Structures are given as structure tokens and as C-alpha cells.
Amino acid sequence: MHYPHPIIAREGWPFLAASVLLAAVVGLVAGWGWSVPLWLVAAFVLQFFRDPPRPVPDGPQDVLSPADGRVVAIGPSRDPLVDRDALKISVFMNVFNVHSNRSPVDGEVREIRYHAGSFLNAALDKASRENERNAILQRTPSGHDVTTVQVAGLVARRILCYVGKGDVLRRGQRYGFIRFGSRLDVYLPAEASPRVAIGDKVRASATVLAELP
User: Fold this and answer.
1) What's the average pLDDT block by block, 10 residues per block, for the chain (213 residues)?
2) Residue 90 falls in the annotated catalytic set
3) Would 36 be classed as within a structural domain?
4) Are 66 and 165 found together in one domain?
5) pTM of whole model > 0.70?
6) Are residues 33 and 111 part of one domain?
7) Would 81 be classed as within a structural domain?
8) How large is the C-alpha radius of gyration of the chain?
9) Which of 43, 153, 170, 174 has its CA 20 to 30 A from that of 107?
10) Same domain, 129 and 198
11) Which residue in the list 35, 182, 193, 205 is annotated as catalytic?
């Protein structure tokens, strides 16, 4: 799980190489004026796949944001993996956010469950139930269960998860990626206290979403 190249996500290297090569070839063959739109595409690919290092707050009960984006939902729900009352906090990522996904808590991965589904606008609440998604359940050292769900979006068609059952993740550790706009849902114990509000902009691993009881 060590990730030694935190500036440009490895998932973007083929896209970046292809876009730069195409722009260069068109520039050399047809003239640099014709290649300007392709260089703009390459610049978009570069910003989309950026993956900067982030500070990690050290509060033992802190739950960190697993993604960059905007908080679109906070409220009571049912945890999809352990079927219990839960506090759900959802973060929507647009195409200009960093799309690297990071662990919100310290904990062992107890279960992973993938669901095929639709590709609705990930900002809609029903996307949590109907879209393609991948959920992981972690058990923290204090015994709390936390479920994090990667949800595909209208444009996102590729959910990547690099952990397996039994892996132990540290808060802020990179564990997955979703390409081109999506959503992450975090299901916490119902007694957890939110530390963000709907509409807040959050940053992966740097923003505290909630505090465990």
C-alpha cells in the first residue's frame, strides 16, 4: 500500500502520456496552432490525476474525509454492510477535484462488497442505492465499524480499490481511485458527531468529517 509518487496518480500516467504524445504529434505534423485544443486536454488530464500529499490530523476518534469534494448529505441512514442505524456523510467529487480515495480511519478491512448498477449523477442521493459502487467495512482499534462506499457517477465508469479483506489501513492512507467524477459515502455509528455541514468543501485526509463516540 506504500505509494511513493504522490504528485501524479499512477492511474493517470497512461492518459497523460497519450494526451501529450498526441498533442506533440499534431503540433509537429499540422502546426502548433492546431494542437492547442489537444494541449488543453493534456492540461485537464494533468490536473485531474494530481495526487498531492496531505496532512493527517491525529485525533484518535477523528473520521477523516476519504476524498476531496463537497459535502452533499449528512443524516441518519442504514449501513449497507452491517445493516444497522448509522450516520451517513456523503462527499461529491466533480471533475476538478483530486480523485484519490483515502482511508477515513485506522482499522482492519473486515468486508468488501461490490455492486453493479447505474451511472446516475453522483450528486443525487439515490445514487447511493442505484449506482455502481464498492463498499469496504473497517473495524477501528476502539471497536467501531466504519463503512466507506465508492460510488460511480454520471461520467465515472471505473472504480478502483486496492485493498483486500484483512488489510489494515492507516488514516489518510491511499486505498483507491474513481475516474472522472463520483461520490463517497461514509457510514458511521449513529452516535458519531458530525464536524462538517452540507455544502462544506472538504479535502481528503486533511478534513475531519466527524468524531466517533
Assistant:
1) 64 89 94 92 88 87 95 95 95 88 96 82 68 92 96 75 94 87 91 97 96 95
2) no
3) yes
4) yes
5) yes
6) no
7) yes
8) 18
9) 153
10) yes
11) 182
